[in-house]
Amino acid sequence: MQVTLKVFRYNPEVDKKGHYETYALDVEETERILDLLELVKGHHDGTLSFRRSCAHGVCGSDAIRINGRNMLACKTLVRDVGDRITVEPLLGLKIVKDLIVDMEPFFDNYKKVLPYFINESPLPADGKERLQSPEQRARFDETTKCILCAACTTSCPSFWGSDDYLGPAALVTAHRFIFDSRDEAASERLKIVGETSGLARCHTAYNCTMACPRDIQITKAIGELKLATLTGKVD
User: Fold this and answer.
1) Domain ends where: 84, 101, 118?
2) What mean pLDDT comes out for the span 114-119?
3) Which terminus of the chain, N or C, has less C-beta within 10 A?
4) Average model confidence (pLDDT) across the chain
5) pLDDT higher than threshold 90 for residue 233
6) Is the pLDDT of residue 234 over 90?
7) Do 125 and 220 sit in the same domain of this protein?
8) Region at 67 (left for phi over 0; alpha for psi -120 to 50; beta for the rest)
9) Count of C-beta atoms within a 10 Å radius of residue 73
10) 39 φ, ψ to 5°?
11) Which domain holds residue 36?
């Protein structure tokens, strides 16, 4: 089938503002949007810039807007979006070039929630790992699936309007550790997410949940964090 691919282009070395370029491509309906971008770069315009790595929906590096929605280019098929396709960079982050955005502010907020395991207690005397029941693991299993693609955070109106808002991805990461029975820093993280730049800026728009390529129930997870900050209970 023939598709019309409209691509946002911006090169800060030559452009004062962004513009769009259109390419007519003959492709299979089962090809991915990432394949189309590779086709353009390899056979039409080698200057096109975009991020990609694993190309299998694991690394999260190729998150872009496709027909106005945040998606992973490597997971979205042509037949899913039709024969007129517009690809643009994520919103809310500075454009570096074409479809590439500056991810540093996103990762700066991610680091604020202490995204690592904290436990200062001695290991069990038998030298084995800190044990956890299947039920304890299931309590936070959903939020371990985040791949830090930023699709959720950059779909959030609160993030567009506030540079210091932690954003859904950081809150999901906080959830993953706060509800881990082996971690000992839940109270510290609850204090961090309870600040003005955290949970208070979430207005339950559900954009994040709809944008997540891993189908994480992000809004639900944020709601559980809100309840934990109110009650002081993590269970």
Assistant:
1) 101
2) 97
3) C
4) 96
5) no
6) no
7) yes
8) left
9) 24
10) -65, -45
11) 2-101
